Amino acid sequence: MNPHESSSRRRRGALFAVVCVLGASTGALTGCKQTERVTTTDPGEAVVTTALDAGGAADAGSVGSAADAGGITLSPTIPPDVDVPQGKPTLADLQHDFDTYSWNTFIATNWPVGADGGVDPHQQPGQHGDNATVWEGWMPATSIFLPGGAPPPAWGAPPVLPAICKGKLEPGEKFLTQIGKTPGLLSESVQPFDTGPLLDQEGNYTRFEILVNKVMFDQIVAQQLYSKAGQQRFDKPANFTCGNASTGEQGAIMVKAAWKPLENPADAARFHTAKALVYTPASENPKIKESCTKQLMGLVGFHVAHKTQGAAQWIWSTFEHVDNVPTEEQVKSGTLKASYNYYDPACKDCAVNKTPPRPWDPNKKIIVNGKVFKSQIVRVDVRPQLMQDSARVHNEEARALLAGVNSASVWTNYELISTQWPTVAGDCNTAELQDGSPAPQFLGNTTLETYIQGKVPNVSSSCIRCHNNAAMTTAKSSDFTYLLERAQ
Hints:
The protein is of the alpha+beta class. The protein contains 7 helices and 15 strands.
């Protein structure tokens, strides 16, 4: 939907507040207060917004018929916020609209780019099988937080490379280094969970990257949050820009992407691919040799977070490749595919969701008892049923749209896992926020939160609650991003 359409409806939607109670063990809605608040959108105009009434949880069957604010569309415009139904929407109605938002964001961020690096208005995603995407032109974190707190290069500049890689990066190629979503190669210090590398069925290490849009990049540069000294001068909590439905302006956006090496070029037909310069820094413990090699990579995980007026705790949308892993239920029932990216159906005694044995050296495959170690990953699905059903309905709708552009489109091989959003809306003018009682309570991407799936409070993956612990190097709040801890 064009961000300027239905502006009054969007303006009301951005002001909508939901006050719900989510079950501690199940993540299901157990009750919602009927509350009202009076806000204004124009001088002298009072608008009453009403939260869900008690017992407002809908049955799963209502997901497909929830009030629609335009549905999933093939548009290059990233939605600035979420449209929500007026009146007294159910949880299913709300999840429907957040999942619609997620797919529209996925389509827009993966829109083809033209020769000038901007959106190509003459193409649609997958029209020619695969395409370079909008988000891949954003600024990678590796070019923002530089040694000694040096200022980052200008927007659009090539990635900042270590000496061993200089002269090797060709136009259109990406630079990948991380083997986890934490900043250092083997570091576990930034995010409060034990983690480890993810190995595919050839024993290769999955690589990760984090990028930010220009709105977020410009604010980091203007406030000098890229360095410890700059954060000390700033001397207050970070507070990034919110997307605004009334103006159509986008807020701060972060993308986390997971990539697997494609040893067989024939596999590329099922993936969004990129040629990458893959860097492994040297290490003494364990002993690792510095390397920089070219590899063809396939996208397996995509996580996008957008700060908006209606969700100051950010909206967290997570996608995966459809061949990544089976669910626990599929394993139990034996309804398995012939192969997966991170699961071997033929292995009956492989321990699932276990961190690979050390040492972790991305230059070498891990050998255990004479065999190459491969991760055996299963999705621990703790989403409430209505969230699962909402994702399924939206995936079917989105794939039909994308297949209509090209039946062989690589983008039909990606699926929304779910969208996490705050049920108690935050205030974008407030620098420090509570977590907003996120729905669903727990949400994990098997490529990005592989080893912290589940529903254990403060341990299992919850995007909003985890990122609410993030701080700058000054210990002040970093507004739901761990990136600012990278400052030197």
